[in-house]
Write a structure and sequence with these properties.
The structure is a single chain. The protein has helices at about 5-20, 40-50, 55-60, 75, 95-100, 115-130, 165-175, 195-200, 215-225, 240, and strands spanning about 85, 105-110, 135, 150-155, 175-190, 210-215, 225-235, 255-260. With about 260 residues, it is of the alpha/beta class. The protein has a single domain (about 5-260), classed as 3-Layer(aba) Sandwich (Rossmann fold). Strands 1, 2, 3, 4, 5, 6, 7 and 8 form an eight-stranded mixed β-sheet that branches. About 50% of the residues are buried.
């Protein structure tokens, strides 16, 4: 597929999720029966990704769609007054949790390319009465944010969906202030998918087909200008990933990872 075809596929899939299609995990329903159809719900999945009860109760219903693969909040070390950018902010779950950490003097900017997700996130923000969060329409390869504007960039299982990850990291570098940091949960490739899986289009929306290797991610981050690059695969995510597309064995090829880096 061309990069634009990948974006259109992702936009269509996640727009449908925002409007009520089965989500519960990254797994696209057409590939195989997913946990959405009888397995863990979004709340239970969030617990397994490392969110605690305080996180879940703070955002209430509607923001947590169970689409992540980890908890970037746990590594971002956010401080009051900081500016946080959430790449692929979806219905706002991580953006709202970040807003609690940075307080009224800080600001959170969520960026998503899906109109339906933006509508849902804005409605959720209004319901929660949050004035320090805003959501902007845009692609993460072309962020609608000024240079040197953010202290930290977070993302949860979204960068793997991009057809141009090098551009994502270049944009992250541009919008971060000097000394700013990246704190991302995402999926990385352990070994190439076999041809029969690589040919499945829906795996590109299932956080599998677009995963990159640790070596490639490290190279793109370094090329963008980052230092102190750390990418830590999480073998314990194997059970969760196996549930995304039961029976396909994708857990043998990808794993969740924590990605961190700093701008000089």
């Amino acid at each position: 597929m061309t990069p634009e075809q990948v974006r259109d596929l992702v936009r269509s899939r996640y727009g449908a999720i925002a409007e009520g299609a089965a989500s519960s995990c990254c797994a696209p329903k057409p590939v195989a029966k997913s946990p959405c159809c009888g397995g863990p719900d979004a709340t239970e999945l969030a617990r397994r990704m490392g969110y605690d009860e305080a996180d879940l109760s703070a955002v209430g219903d509607g923001a947590n769609l169970g689409l992540g693969c980890g908890n970037p909040q746990a590594i971002a070390a956010m401080r009051p007054g900081e500016v946080v950018v959430d790449l692929g902010s979806g219905a706002g779950f991580d953006a709202f949790l970040a807003a609690r950490r940075i307080g009224e003097t800080g600001r959170v900017i969520g960026v998503d390319m899906t109109h339906e997700m933006l509508n849902k996130a804005r409605a959720n923000a209004a319901r929660l009465g949050l004035s320090n969060v805003e959501f902007r329409l845009g692609e993460i390869e072309h962020l609608p944010i000024a240079d040197n504007a953010a202290d930290v960039i977070i993302s949860n299982c979204v960068i793997n969906l991009s057809p141009d990850k090098a551009a994502v990291f270049a944009e992250a570098f541009r919008v971060l202030k000097p000394g700013g940091r990246v704190a991302v949960s995402d999926v990385v490739m352990l070994k190439p998918l076999p041809p029969e899986l690589a040919a499945v289009r829906d795996l590109f929306t299932g956080c599998v087909g677009g995963a990159a290797t640790v070596a490639d991610l490290s190279r793109w981050l370094e090329q963008a200008g980052f230092f102190d690059i750390r990418i830590d695969p999480k073998p314990e995510s194997r059970e969760l990933i196996a549930e995304w597309t039961p029976g396909l064995g994708v857990e043998d090829y990808v794993t969740s990872a924590i990605i961190q880096a700093r701008k000089p």
